[in-house]
Design goal:
5-stranded parallel β-sheet; alpha/beta; Rossmann fold
Length: 213
């Protein structure tokens, strides 16, 4: 993805309706300037982080609610490499470029930044120092000790409930099961047919030997 823009301003961020070039900030120095300008202007800055793979209605509802707790919502998105390191070699299903393009279409998302594998999970939080850190209640990465440490860098921490009955992980598991089940049935049928053919050949051979005696 080619994003070559170093002149982001708070005004341009607030006016942006959709589009990766308007919302995705690859340079952390530019991000820091935007955050500082926002806070100086009296805007409440919110931060949330995630993978947003196989984007579904729960993601949209979550981000929509997250945006109600801040004037400017920054979304940290895990890179493909970081996602693989946490969720396994088959993830993400959607590339980083595809995921941030979808997020950029949402009016509730103002800024998108990348979280990479060489960054500590706290790095973006320490940089932004959000007035509000929004987290899902299903997040298992953060324990009580993490929350205590993060309180040093955040105004408040908001925990939102899951906004959909089925998560991305559950959907992928279901796809795997639904794909494997017909395959396993077909294999079982072929093995049964092969076994029956072998038995038939053996019986025919034995019968021939018996008849020849």
């Amino acid at each position: 993805m080619e994003v070559n823009k170093s002149d982001w301003t708070l005004k341009s961020i607030l006016k942006a309706k959709h589009g990766v070039t308007e919302k995705y900030i690859p340079n952390l120095d530019d991000l820091k300037k935007i955050v500082e300008a926002a806070k100086q202007g009296g805007y409440k800055v919110g931060l949330t982080q995630g993978v947003y793979d196989m984007f579904h209605v729960g993601h949209g509802r979550y981000l929509e609610e997250a945006s109600t707790h801040a004037d400017i919502l920054i979304v940290g998105v895990d890179s493909d490499e970081l996602t693989r390191s946490m969720k396994g070699p088959t993830r993400p299903f959607d590339t980083f470029e595809e995921r941030i393009e979808i997020l950029a279409m949402l009016s509730c998302v103002h800024v998108i930044v990348k979280r990479d594998v060489d960054q500590h999970m706290y790095d973006l939080i320490k940089l932004v120092k959000p007035d509000v850190l929004v987290m899902s209640q299903t997040t298992r990465t953060f324990g009580d000790e993490d929350k205590r440490v993060l309180n040093e860098y955040c105004g408040t921490i908001r925990h939102l409930e899951a906004k959909a009955a089925t998560s991305t992980t559950a959907k992928l598991r279901r796809l795997k099961i639904e794909g494997i089940t017909p395959f396993s049935i077909a294999v079982k049928q072929k093995v049964t047919e092969f076994a029956e053919d072998v038995i038939s050949l053996v019986e025919s051979s034995l019968k021939g030997e018996t008849d020849g005696q």
